Amino acid sequence: MATEAANGNNHVVVKKPPTPSPLRNSKFFQSNLRILVTGGAGFIGSHLVDKLMENEKNEVIVADNFFTGSKDNLKKWIGHPRFELIRHDITEPLLVEVDQIYHLACPASPIFYKHNPVKTIKTNVMGTMNMLGLAKRVGARILLTSTSEVYGDPLEHPQKEEYWGNVNPIGVRSCYDEGKRVAETLMFDYHRQHGLEIRIARIFNTYGPRMNIDDGRVVSNFIAQALRGESLTVQAPGTQTRSFCYVSDMVDGLIRLMEGDNTGPINIGNPGEFTMMELAEIVKELIKPSISIEIVENTPDDPRQRKPDITKAKQLLGWEPKITLRQGLPLMEEDFRLRLGVPKKA
Ligand SMILES: NC(=O)c1ccc[n+]([C@@H]2O[C@H](COP(=O)([O-])OP(=O)(O)OC[C@H]3O[C@@H](n4cnc5c(N)ncnc54)[C@H](O)[C@@H]3O)[C@@H](O)[C@H]2O)c1
Ligand SMILES: O=c1ccn([C@@H]2O[C@H](COP(=O)(O)OP(=O)(O)O[C@H]3OC[C@@H](O)[C@H](O)[C@H]3O)[C@@H](O)[C@H]2O)c(=O)[nH]1
Fold first, then answer.
1. How many domains does the chain have?
2. Which one, of 225, 244, 246, lies nearest residue 234 by Cα?
3. How many CA atoms lie within 13 A of 296 on its CB side?
4. Is 308 part of any domain?
5. What is the pTM of this model?
6. Before 158, cis peptide (omega within 30)?
7. What is the chain's mean pLDDT, rounded?
8. 224 located within any domain
9. Which of 167, 168, 226, 303 is the most exposed place for a label (fewest CB within 10 A)?
10. Which residues does ligand 1 sit against, CB inside 6 Å?
11. Active-site hit among 102, 176, 190, 246
12. Per residue in 4-21, pLDDT tens?
């Protein structure tokens, strides 16, 4: 029996990890790490793939069903000898020889995850079991992208990893937040029961280039609305807060977590906290000061405040975000202008 003091959680590992893929002992492995990214055609996934592909020792396999992702996000890698793209729904088993699994596949925007809630929970539960089964079979290390939504509508602020959350088990968001909570449970059960090497990142709201223009999340909505000359739709009351992390910082945090010794869960996010009205004012000032801001109806169970405590990420991963909201928004604006065909005024 071994304990994992590194986590500060004292999780007991009952079994030894399964034997890793023979690739790890082969000559071939010395120069190549084979990495599976589920959901790699999506927003964060495709940026992660770009970063992983920069390392010539990595081979990257993406499995995605293209529900919210697109081949376009990966077009620069299609045909590359170290890259493979598989159309695959992770609610079905997948057999591939890999050494690491970044498990991201899951719709993340509320309008998409609520669209087919039964499918969302299947993706989180059966999909995660399938990926854990694969990790067990080939001895791969697996990282789950969990979410700040596991804290629900938090009664503690900012949120520390030790906080158990305040989640409605039967609400319209439950397919996603309870789904991710079960996914975390499965990760730890496979870790304790089968000795799997696991990593759990609790990601807070992330934004950046390549988000779907009609993704429905707040930053992409406001930027697209401002560029189209439409009013910005702040959902009532507008005093609810979020903390926004730029995608390159997020990818850096995920890779550090995968490569480090800590299982997590570890919060990865930018602690800069803004109300949705403040965010609207910043986008308005940045893109089109003449635009109006409209208060519209909100959806049920919208968390009223959210801000990560990133002490663990700082101490255990040596990570903290570098890009502020005011630095990141113009980078996203540039990408949205190109895709929407709205040139910047001289
Ligand atoms: N972006 C954020 O703010 C944020 C915050 C917290 C957690 N996360 C997590 O990070 C991950 C990526 O989020 P994102 O913002 O890039 O979202 P995204 O919607 O852009 O990407 C999700 C990807 O998963 C794919 N997918 C969905 N269901 C699938 C299935 N059953 N089988 C195979 N592929 C499937 C989609 O096609 C898409 O390419 C998700 O797990 C999400 O829960 C994101
Ligand atoms: O047009 C909009 C869209 C959203 N909002 C508000 O903006 C806030 C953020 O909403 P988003 O839809 O961007 O994202 P949420 O924070 O609700 O959920 C996200 O949390 C983290 C991840 O797991 C997921 O990416 C997603 O579930 C909410 O308070 C929402 O009411 C607006 O004011 N206007």
1. 1
2. 225
3. 11
4. no
5. 0.94
6. yes
7. 93
8. no
9. 168
10. 39, 41-45, 64-69, 89-91, 104-108, 123, 127, 145, 147, 203, 205-206
11. 176
12. 434 445 555 566 777 766
Q: State pLDDT tens for residues 132-165.
A: 999 999 999 999 999 999 999 999 999 999 999 9
CA of 9 to the centre of ligand 2 (A): 31
Q: Is 246 a catalytic residue?
A: no
Classify residue 325: in a domain, yes or no: no
Domain extent at residue 38: 2-206+246-268
Residue 141: inside a domain, yes or no? yes
Per the listing, tokens 């409605």 go with: 168
Q: Give the pair of three-digit tokens for residue 52.
A: 């992983």
Q: How far apart are the first and last CA of the chain?
A: 66
Is 1's pLDDT higher than 60?
A: no
Measured between alpha carbons, how far is 338 from 234 in angstroms, rounded to an integer? 25
CATH number at residue 184: 3.40.50.720
Work out the angle between the directed axes of helices 43-54 and 247-259 (0-180°, nearest 10).
60
CB 130 within 8 A of CB 93: yes
Give the distance (Å) from ligand 2 centre to CA of residue 202: 16
147 closest CA partner among 133, 161, 132: 161
